[in-house]
Amino acid sequence: MRCYMGIDVGSISTKGVVIDSDNKILAQQYIWTEGNPVSAIKKVVRELHKGLPKDSMIVGIGTTGSARNLAGVLLGAKTVKNEITAHAVGTLSVHPEVRTILEIGGQDSKIIILENGVVTDYAMNTLCAAGTGSFLSSQAVRLGVPVEEFGKYALKSKNPAKIAARCTVFAESDLVHKAQIGYKKEDIIAGLCNAVVANYMNNLAKGKTIRAPVIFQGGVSKNAGVKEAFKNATGKEIMVDERGHLMGALGVAILSKKANAVEFDISQLDKPFETKGTECSRCANNCELISIYKDNKLAETWGSRCGVVE
After folding, report:
1. 264, 58 in Cβ contact below 8 A?
2. Phi-psi category of 247—alpha, beta or left, where left has phi over 0 and alpha has psi -120 to 50?
3. For the chain, what percentages of helix, strand and coil (3-state, to nearest 5) are there?
4. pLDDT higher for 6 or 105?
5. Is-same-fold flag (2-90+249-270; 97-240)?
6. Three-state SS for 20?
7. Tell me, which fold does domain 2-90+249-270 have in CATH?
8. Rounded CA gap, 191 and 127, in Å?
9. pLDDT tens-place string over residues 6-29
10. 133-143 and 185-203 helices, crossing angle to 10°
11. Mapping DSSP to helix (H, G, I), strand (E, B) and coil, where does residue 241 land?
12. What class, spelled out in words, does domain 97-240 have in CATH?
């Protein structure tokens, strides 16, 4: 059976799926990246491989996410795509009617606008932490509440606190102030959920028309408080697919079907893999060159602005 693997490597988590020719998911994995994408990729791929039927053969590999290029070199992937394309393709394969994709991950967020199954507009935020999952996680530690329980707390609130949404510094200052004057934890948490959505709407979604059906993805989509805040902010029903965290991996697996089929050899994961950084001195740019060595051989070099590698 011919199968196709998609790997989505983010700063917080690494996801992977293997699909058959009909896009049915045969195996899936989700683990924390923990600052070591190479180790996370290897672990995900090995676990995916274990979960496949014995008669299966992986003939296509695609990678996406912030470490997609690194993953592509490590796995010998012929398909390396950005997150916008991967999420759109994956989501449309499950929800062909969707017109707006809202996505909030651990370190970034994105919005994708679609018309008739085609991406017509998008935006990504990789700069402001106040609109991401890492912001909620850090505030959960401050409040002594597991971030997994934020949604439950937020939905109990009758009087959400007004938390500044423009940046993490102001938001944290506001949070401390609200706690000191006696706001309940559920009201502060509901305020934080509203702040994340306000930041998203004022930055990524500004000037964009959000049309239904709307689907919410990324790790933060598991937070019922943020989902409710999006519903209130947009006036639209918000769908959350239980497999929403896998849509990038699913999309790039589907896209890998278009490349020339090559059987994947899992033994290549045992070969040495190393990244080395050097500074090029050929010109005044002094570019930082990132060299990838696979099986002790130079596989790829990135970072040269003039195209010359020392």
Report:
1. yes
2. alpha
3. 40, 25, 35
4. 6
5. yes
6. coil
7. Nucleotidyltransferase; domain 5 (3.30.420)
8. 22
9. 999 988 889 999 999 999 999 999
10. 160
11. coil
12. alpha beta
